[in-house]
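Exercise 7 asks you to align residues with tokens for two separate proteins.
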Amino acid sequence: MLRRCINQNKRVCTLLSSSKRDQIHTGSCHPKSYQSGSDHSGSEQDGSEQGGSYKGGSDGSYRSRVRCLGGVTAAVVGLVAASSESTVEPPSPDQYDVMDHLYETGQLDELVTGLRYYAELETVELLWRRARAEWAWNKSIKFATGGYQARRLQECMDMIDKAMELDSSVSNVHLVKAILVKAQCQMAGSPGPQIAGMLEMKSLLEAALELDPDNGAAAQLLSMWHYEVAQIGWLQRRVFGFWGSVPEGSLQTALDLAWRAQEIRATVRNLLLLSKIYYELSDGGKAKRYLEMALEVPCSCQDDVEAVEEAAKLKKQLR
């Protein structure tokens, strides 16, 4: 099957120049017409994963089962005429750009399928991208049990820990680990692990920004961290206090970081975050203004659609 995919996509794989990458189809942008990827389902009993035939393991034996999902996926996995089924070459810079484009536009089926082709290559750039994509993809699985998600989260954490061991100077390694630590906090059943996770997440995001001041995703997540921690009420802080020192969050710091993220890369999620922070700072005029701006931004992925829907609900509350 892999050889058939190679033959069918020889021509597509030659088009990955910078002048062609912006022609990749990303689907409808409007929130009303945006269509997310195919539905997924997962079960605690069989651990099946729709959207691919991966069954775990690290021996690369599943490469022969990579599905042909069209030209974009073929390009991502590097299915060029010179490739052989016994050799996997590292991706080119152009292919990394396509991978990042697929992630940013929410084309997770294609991205995960492509990245799994490279599973036997444990390089830093592949490991953090795999961990990020696999977790985002698993979160989209419908009807998945808590145990199923916990196992998938641990698999992603193993990937990012390996990447951290290989090279801890990569900003996105710290960013992706912070994302996974946040997921662990949300799954934690007691305040102790939640407090430890919040502190670790802050440290990781600060490290990501120190390594790359232009990491807009890290700036946005650290802004959200300060915003959410600042919302912890005194009663919850007293309860958490029995398990350790509760971290402090600053709305002003959250605002500064949100603006930093927006200046690096303008997104609907940044606008929504700015609106929520201004609301908590008792500036209703600016809160409403940025909500209205968020509602006008075209959506490029499911996360953007959800942000627009949340903005619409908040706008009604501000009337």
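Second protein for Exercise 7:
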Amino acid sequence: MLFKIILCFLFSSQTNGFVPKQIMTFVIDRVDNTFKNKLGYFSESIVHEEIIERGIARSVARFFYEQKNGPSRIDLSKLNTDYKNIKNIYRDYYQKSFCKIDVEELISDEFQPEVASVDFDDDTKDLASAHFDAEQFNQSNQRVINYMNIIQSFLNVNDYHRARKNVARILHTIHDFYSHSNWVEMGNKNINKDIGTKNFSKYQIADVKDSKTCESNCTTIEIECNTLLKALVKLIQKLGVRSSIINCPIKYFRCNGNVLFKNKLVSGFYVDQGIEKPDNAMKCSHGGILDGSAFKKAKGGINKDSGYFVFSPHADLHLTAANLAIDHTEFFFEEVRKKIGNRKFSDFLNLEVSDSILNSINDYIQICKSFSIVIKQNLKNSSFYVVLNFFIL
């Protein structure tokens, strides 16, 4: 296992934008249940990249449903099951099997790297308004409005590449509304369609006048560092992720009912964002072992970023928040489709399949199969295969 952690670190050090949480979750998910439970496992974790992929897939399914023969071929009851894989949407609509689809490449090459980059780019990783943190709701909403205007300007001139880049980056901010605020804790079951509009001003928002937004009623969990945990802590420190607050033994919080407001929007403060959690108040923290502010009163936090309490004090609400983020991603792309129409939306996501491809689809599949075999054979003959195989298994 220690060898696997080292491989993770070596691989991550050669790439840009690799998500530390993904590394940690990857390691954690391969240990026994006893160890996972020590780290507060509650559910699977759905990251930004998967959220945006699922949201796009739903919108693509709705697009094809509205095309000729769509209602007889596309089954919208599959949105949360079979249609998570976009190839299955194309399979049903075209009645053919595809091994390569342009929109999948756009997702992996453009949308997913950009949506993840907001956590790592110097200009946004510690910007509270890029994450709906530190009670910066109005500032975050204005950011969404500004981005939507920029996106529309690129769409107007058919600059789809830059439009996609900005869509991904602002969807990160929108996703964070659900995992960083108390929207879920307030009992909301649906997305907030007012995000990115002037109507957002109708919501009551906690601010500096509210000196107590959380209480310190969270349960503190402390676990001693065995060899694996020591390696994990060292990995985090080497990656430079707020290393000053990660030590052994590891302490984290499980929180339930610590947010005091049900009628006001609240979000947590996060260390190193330039907006410090006040010492003379009982404000909520973002929380998790990457957030040093979690140990200042009110201790704990409210984030729902993952299904592990070690990272997310409200991990039990992670899937609820993640599913709302998927719903909002679908809503966002559907709103884009309404504004620009199906023809331009198809160009925006490279949805069209040419007649030449459709007419030669059987040969195309065979070519793809042969190509994949060649790649696999070549990888087996290289040292890099060891690392790739580690991630594939």
